[in-house]
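Work package 3, deliverable 3.1, input record:
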Amino acid sequence: MDRRESLKSMILGSMAVGLTLESCVTETAPEVIEDKIWKYTYGRTPKEAAFDEDLLLDQFFEDQELQIIKTLANLILPPNEQGTIEQAGVVEFIEFMAKDVPEFQVKIRGGLMWMNGYCNTHYQATFVNCTEVQQKELLDKMAFPDMEAEEQVQEVQFFSLMRNLVLTGYFTSEVGIKELDYKGNMPNVWDGVPQDVLEAHGMSYDAEWLAKCLDPDTIGDMAQWDNEGNLIS
Amino acid sequence: MQIIESQKIYDVIIVGSGAGGGMATKVLADAGLKVAVMEAGPFFDPANPEQRTQLKWPYESPRRGAGTQRDFGEFDAAYGGWNIEGEPYNNIGDTKFDWFRSRMLGGRTNHWGRISLRFGPNDFKAKDRDGLGDNWPIGYEDVKPYYDKVDKLIGVFGSNEKRYNDPDGFFLPAPKPRLHELYYIKGAKKSNVDVIPSRLSILTKRINNDRGVCFFCGQCNRSCSVYADFSSGSCLIFPAQKNGGQVDLFVNSMVSEVTIDEHGKANGVKYINKEDRQQYTLKSKIVVLAASACSSARILLNSKSEKHPNGLGNSSGLIGKYLHDSTGTDRAIFVPELMNRKRYNEDGVGGLHVYSPWWLDNKKLDFPRGYHIEVWGGLGMPGYGTGFNPNDLNKHLGLTVGGYGNGLREDVKKFYGSVLGMSGRGESIARKENYCEIDPTTVDEFGIPVLRFNYSWSDFERKQAKHMHQTFEEIGHNMGGIVLGDAPGKDKDYGLLNPGRIIHEVGTTRMGSDPKTSVVNEFERLHDVDNVFVVDAGPFVSQADKNPTWTILALAWRTSDFIIEELKKQNL
Ligand SMILES: Cc1cc2nc3c(=O)[nH]c(=O)nc-3n(C[C@H](O)[C@H](O)[C@H](O)COP(=O)(O)OP(=O)(O)OC[C@H]3O[C@@H](n4cnc5c(N)ncnc54)[C@H](O)[C@@H]3O)c2cc1C
Ligand code: SF4
């Protein structure tokens, strides 16, 4: 069994549900993987877990492709004090999605090659080695859909796909969710829209409707009804 | 291969552990019967940390929740979906029926929408009003006591509104509307469309000491680890066991047919244990089918014998016929006033807080049956797809679409929570020409012949969908919103989703008093075989625009009571 296979069976054997993508996973010490295995525990069936592990242990993009993705992602969403592409794990996410959604593979790989081809012709350098001014000159050709067109040209479609993946990768990460300022996913009691928000929107609750609504103070009480179905507790 | 027989004889074998099977298990086991529950999927308990997805963050999945493995996203609780590996189904000609199945203890009740609506008096007798389809042999008054009991046993929030055809019940208090729901109310009122608190089987107050109360995470489709929403496993089957019931659970056990004795009566089932892939038989005095409408029809049709050459209970030739699903079409509305919203925790319960029950009179319309409107939107948890087409809505504001750079961060934040949607869910007419049947050309991986479907919509449904879009547009404008996209035209069936897509498939073993025109009687008992019952949605004669599950539960309880009575009288 080669190292990669033995590593895989070790992980499967330990009931792991996944591990992070390291660019050189076979070189990673088992302790490190063990350490990170539980990053992806989200209620998989054994079959799903095995599928994820296969994808995580596999690598689709070559290192130089990942470099382009990283550069492109940082142009689409430049780092600022709120968060970066690296903190959000965007490149790893795109690598994973390319394996998870095989239709992405040729589109992305081809798009990256197309960008390099363009840069070689116009700037005698690969995309990564172009100056930022040159890179943006290219992006300006790809980033704006023709609102009148029935179908967008390849480079615009490719860029839209990359922009979508970059943004969704970012805004589903810990830093991205914080930046979006999503406040939920934790136990609480819903007691309606805050008063200042209601006012800002010129809304109010009508009294008759409110009378049918739950009172946070009695939520733990045992429900009781009269024979007509009126709640009396 | 040899069939492995079990010597034990159960009082009842229940096939399927979803809504119908769970209810039958609870009532029959509580009555002291020896029950075997056969479930094709694995054991599932939403409280099990290894199976739990509730309260997970998107970044806990390497695909950030994308729906590549599970149709409604990776955190959804369904083990199954539109397609299940190794268990195909087919469509006849160019008709299209999409079949959603879950394979797990509790079935689809683990991840369903929890919309829990009683049928009204009109709904059981629809033919009386428009001459279409058939009446049920029973009426609201027969089912009402069971709806009442289901409300109290399982719990449902809502409000008593004194609407004749949307009967009152025993409701827990409703959650207050969210902001986008207030916009919906505003638009609906101006359009003369009624709006009332929604009715979902979620505990907004304690109903017993075994189940927790909702903590408002908005994730019921992930199944609630504190059992605050209704799932068949956590709320019926586990309590039946805990109550000392004699319940043997056979999970990963795929029933292929009902077996019969020399008199043509059922005496058990044949099943395949998915773990060792061997065939087994299990014996019982009574068989209760609850494998979901189409799966139960399939089992009966596959139970062929000399005594029952067309399949068990199929002397009428009607098993599989009259298959019908709810109609459905959706529309999204962009509300500029909801841009740049102030943030707060708006998760609420895992579903809508308000809805519009059918508010018009079909006599004045060009389509015979009604629909209700469901509302969605809000400051929900980001997931795969958040940030897609980040500034497409700019075109409505005269601003640039596309681009790159940190301006995109602002676009995503600006539009977050500014789009809401409406879904119309309507009643279709049950027709004999819409059916499922055994496909002699295909078997599943267990060697069991599979189903093929033949289902098309008629103009009744198309005209209804057209009306839905007109309503959506009116409400959308009246709330100050911009209705997105064009109304789908005739070429697109006015946006009607494929049959099956609303996942309310019913009618395949329909109820009636005449054995020539129906499969089961009013107690869901096969006309042909008196110890076989069907307690899923197969017996539905029609299904109103009300989602089916509350009625499945009420009827399963009623049938279980009947079984107990018959046993007492030694009629079974
Ligand atoms: C996403 C979604 C949202 C929904 N929302 C709502 C809603 O808001 N309101 C509503 O009323 N309804 C809703 N429904 C529909 C609701 O889930 C079903 O009506 C209900 O679960 C049907 O109950 P059942 O007992 O007939 O079947 P199921 O719940 O489907 O259970 C059937 C069980 O039988 C098992 N089974 C099947 N074949 C065999 C076999 N051969 N041998 C052994 N076991 C077998 C299956 O594995 C399954 O566990 C929704 C469904 C989905 C998928
Ligand atoms: S919304 Fe309430 S009932 Fe639904 S899963 Fe969350 S806590 Fe449970």
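Chain B has a mean pLDDT of 97.
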